[in-house]
């Protein structure tokens, strides 16, 4: 497999099925952000440490699933050679898997009734960045689905994935004994 194709030299890229589009096409923006998220998760895994080893295997599975989602986003709905990989059955199973993990992490961490500031441990901060990149991918998928038919399962999973990262970030702080910092809601610390 060649690394370079020269398609990009003129600002174009090839979708699955040979269709060419501009590199700033909404479809490319959507699957490109999913790819960015996948890379960030790779970084996050590299800083987890032994206390959060359970997260490592979950994050690896998420990386695998994000490749499937990226593939579906890069496939036009009318492509006769390629079916969507992220089927209804796979989506249902994997979304339930995420929800089970979310429930475990929410149960473990102290209850909150206010917004929290992203941060705490480096691991928690990295998971919060993953959450925000996931939200950006979600917005781009919504934009894409307004103009093109796409696999609707991608949006379902990505929506739940941002919730997973929030719960996992809180769990990472809890595991390290770090308390989340709550949002002050307009109450200044420094007064004149």
Explained architecture:
By secondary structure, the chain is mainly α. It has a single domain, classed as Up-down Bundle (Hypothetical Protein Ta1238, Chain: A). The chain is 59% helix and 3% strand. It has helices spanning 26-46, 53-73, 88-108, 122-147, 153-176, and strands at residues 12-14, 20-22. Strands 1-2 form a two-stranded antiparallel ribbon. Helix 1 (26-46) packs antiparallel against helix 2 (53-73), helix 1 (26-46) packs antiparallel against helix 4 (122-147) and helix 3 (88-108) runs parallel beside helix 5. The longest helix is centred in the last third of the chain and has 26 residues, at 122-147. The termini are far apart.
Which secondary structure elements does this structure contain, and how are they paired or packed?
Layout: E1 12-14, E2 20-22, H1 26-46, H2 53-73, H3 88-108, H4 122-147, H5 153-176
Antiparallel strand pairs: 1-2
Helix pairs in contact: 1-2, 1-4, 3-5, 4-5
CATH architecture annotation name: Up-down Bundle
Structural class: mainly alpha
Main-sheet strand order equals 1-2
- Give the strand content: under 5%
Helix content: 55-70%
Termini Cα gap: 64 Å
Number of domains: 1
Alpha plus pi helix count:
5
EC number: 2.5.1.17
Pathway: Cofactor biosynthesis; adenosylcobalamin biosynthesis; adenosylcobalamin from cob(II)yrinate a,c-diamide: step 2/7
Subunit structure: Homotrimer.
Pfam families: Cob_adeno_trans
């Amino acid at each position: 497999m060649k690394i370079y194709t020269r398609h990009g030299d003129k600002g174009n890229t090839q979708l699955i099925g040979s269709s060419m589009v501009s590199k700033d096409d909404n479809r490319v923006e959507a699957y490109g952000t999913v790819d960015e998220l996948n890379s960030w998760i790779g970084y996050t895994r590299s800083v987890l440490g032994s206390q959060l080893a359970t997260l490592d295997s979950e994050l690896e599975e998420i990386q695998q699933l994000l490749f499937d989602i990226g593939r579906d986003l890069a496939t036009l709905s009318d492509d006769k050679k390629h079916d969507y990989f992220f089927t209804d059955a796979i989506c249902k199973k994997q979304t339930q898997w995420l929800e089970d993990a979310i429930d475990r992490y929410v149960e473990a961490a102290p209850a909150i009734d206010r917004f929290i500031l992203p941060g705490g441990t480096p691991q928690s901060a990295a998971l919060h960045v993953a959450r925000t990149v996931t939200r950006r991918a979600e917005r781009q998928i919504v934009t894409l689905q307004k103009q093109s038919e796409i696999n609707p399962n991608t949006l379902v999973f990505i929506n739940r994935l941002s919730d997973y990262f929030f719960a996992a970030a809180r769990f990472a702080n809890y595991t390290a004994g770090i308390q989340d910092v709550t949002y002050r809601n307009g109450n200044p610390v420094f007064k004149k």
